[in-house]
Specification:
177 residues; mainly beta; 8-stranded mixed β-sheet; 9% helix
Length: 177
Amino acid sequence: IADAGKVAPFQPWAKALYEVRQKNDLKDDPMAYCLPPGGPRQFQDRYGVQIVEQPDRKRIFIMSAGGNRNWRIIWLDGRKNPDPDDVTPTYYGYSSGRWEGDTLIADTTAFTERFWFTNGGLPHTEKLALTERITRPDFDTLKYEVTVNDPGAYTRPWTGSFTLSWVPADVEEYFCD
């Protein structure tokens, strides 16, 4: 088990929960019960994601290939995210985005607590807010960077990143059961 202090700046309760999940070999993972992979985990699904920019609709549509065809929309029309207290929290939250050069920046809020936002079982609260940066450094690679801000689970905002192989193909049919 990795030293939890090196994983993230946990609040004490969040660190204890993370350690329990690790000791239990992640057996209570919500994705094992066909629940959607919210937050960064959407990009860590072994079945991949399909990303479609729809300039005429001023949005980016991201569909998870695993599970039961869950999707997320990042609005590019200048709208602000709703106040989390005014909406029902969701697995993918509410996202507003913008392009800065070749980088897509998405600010996402109003998440439900019902998912693990990484493969390793990191906990979060409904206070979770993410700032995601997605770039394509070369033809075969997507780089995903995220700033996590959740004062309910962490003592300060923190960042993480990973790269994905870009495979220009349609997603295969798959249904979680």
